[in-house]
Amino acid sequence: MLSTKFNSTEGSFEVIDFMPRYKTSDNESYASAEIYRYIRLISGAPVFKVNYNPKLNYAIEEVFHITVDDHIRTYSTERPTNCIYLYSSLNLDDILGAKDITLTAHQFLLMSYNQKLIEIDINRVYLEYQRTKVYWLNFTNRSKKYELYTEEIIRSLLVLKIMSFQSTGAVLAALTTSLPETIGEVRNWDYRFCWLRDASMSIETLLKMGHYRTAQRFLFFIKGILKSKDDSFQIMYGIRGERELTEANLLHLSGYEGSKPVRIGNAAYFQRQNDVFGYLLNVIYQYYVFFPGTLDEIEDIWEILRNITQTVSEHWQSPDKGIWEIRGIEKHFVFSKVMSWVAMDRAAKIASLLNKDHQCETWRGIADEIKEDILRNGWNKDLQTFTQTYDNLHVDASLLLMEEYGFIVADDPKFKKTVIAVKTGLHHEGLMYRYLNEDDFGKPSSSFTICTFWLIQAMFKIGMEEEAKAIFDNLLKCGNHVGLFSEDIDFATKRLLGNFPQAYSHLALINTAALFSKPRFISKFIKP
Length: 528
Fold this sequence. Notes:
The chain is α+β, with helices and mostly antiparallel strands. The chain has helices at about 90-95, 120-140, 150-160, 195-210, 210-225, 275-290, 295-315, 335-355, 355-375, 415-425, 450-460, 465-475, 505-515, 520-525, and strands spanning about 1-5, 10-20, 20-25, 30, 35-45, 45-50, 65-70, 70-75, 85-90, 100, 105-110, 195, 235, 250, 265, 380, 385, 425-430, 430, 445-450, 490, 495.
C-alpha cells in the first residue's frame, strides 16, 4: 500500500494505491488483478488532472477507449479481447480528456483486468482498503520482532510476501524487466520469473521469520511443476509453472534512460546450474523437520527428493554456468560444487529422519565425495583461499556462503582466509563486486546488492562484528525513501540500479539484520 500526499495553494489530498488482498476463509484469500487508487481529500479544493494512457502488450498494439455505463474499456485494436477496465467516481469524460478536476470529496479510480460484476462505489473502495490494510497488519504482527532494525526487517518481509504469487506459490525474483544494471549498457534482464535458487532462499528466510504457509505453498508449486517422475528440473519457471521462457528483444522500446535492449523472457531457463538443487533441498529438509503434511504429501515430496538426488549424482562432476548465469563457457565453479554437497547432505539427513538407512548411507557417501573434491581442487594453497573455479585464480562473492550452508565452520582457518581474500579483492567504496574477472558481457561495473550483505554476514561470523555493522549501517542508507532495494547499486553515486524490488536483496537484509539483534520476546524473558 503506497500513500502519496499532494499539497498546493488550493488544498491537499492523499492518494492511496493498493491491490486488494485479504482472507475470505482460513484457507482462502482474495487477491484479484486490480489496482485501486483511493483519493482522500484532506483540505480545501485542490485541482488535478488524470493522465490515463495505458499501453497493452508492451505498447506493441494500438488501443481504443470506449465508455460503457460505469466504466471505460480499453482494448487492443488487434485483439479486442485483450482489454482492461477503468472504474471511477470521477467523470469518465474528464478522465479521457485530461480535464481539470476539482476535488470536493473522497474519490476513487479502479483499474481491473476483469469486468466487475458488483457495483463499485466509494464505500466499497473504502471497505477494500481497510480489509487490505488489516491483512498486511496481521502479516506483520505474525512476524518475529527484533530489538534492532525491526522496521527494516518488516519492510523486507512485506517485499518477500508480495513476491509470492497467491495462485500457485511461485516466488518471483523481481517485479520488473530490463531495468539496467548499468545505465546505457546491455545487462538488462527480465526477472519476473521463479528461479528455484532465489525462491528457495526467500522461503528459507520466511520460515525463519515464522511464515510457514507461504513456504508450504511454494512446495506445492514444486510438486506441480513435476508432472511425472521422469520430468527434469529447470533452474527457473513462469509463475504458473511455464517451462518455455523464450527471450526476445523489444526493438521498438528505447529502454530505461536509453539502456537497450529491453528484454522479455530469459534465455537462462535452459542453462545448467548445479547449485540450484542445494537451496531447494535445504528448504525441503526444513519442511520435513518443521511441518510435514499428510502421508501422501510426504511421499510426494520424497519422490521429488529422489528425483533431485539422481540429477545431482549424475551432474555434480560436470561444469556448469554457475550462480551468476555466465553465458560463456561452462566451468567447475566451486560454489556450484558446494551446493551440490548441500543437496546430498540434506537428502541424507531427510533419509535419516525417515529411517531410510540405505539411501542415507548412499547419499552421505556422495556428499563426502563431493566435499573431498572441493577441498582438493577448490582450495588454492598459493593464494590461501578458495577460488571461483577449479582452474582460475579469481575470488567470488558466493564463496562467502560456504559457512552459511554448513560446508565449513566459521572458525576454520580456510574460511577465515577466504573471507579476508574476498573482502580484499571485491570490496570497493563500501560495496561488493560479485567477481572481477571479465565475463561474456565485460567487467561488471556496479555492485550486486546481495553480495555486500553476504560479506557482512561472513565478517560477523569470523569475529569482525564492529566493522561488519559499520558496513551494514552504511548499506542501509542506499535504500530508497521507503526502504526498498534493487538488484544493483552504483559504486560512486550509490544509485539503485537493476530490477526492483529484488527478492535477493531483501532476504539478505533480513538475515543480516537478525545477526545484530535478538528477537524481542527472547530478550525479555531469557537471560543471556
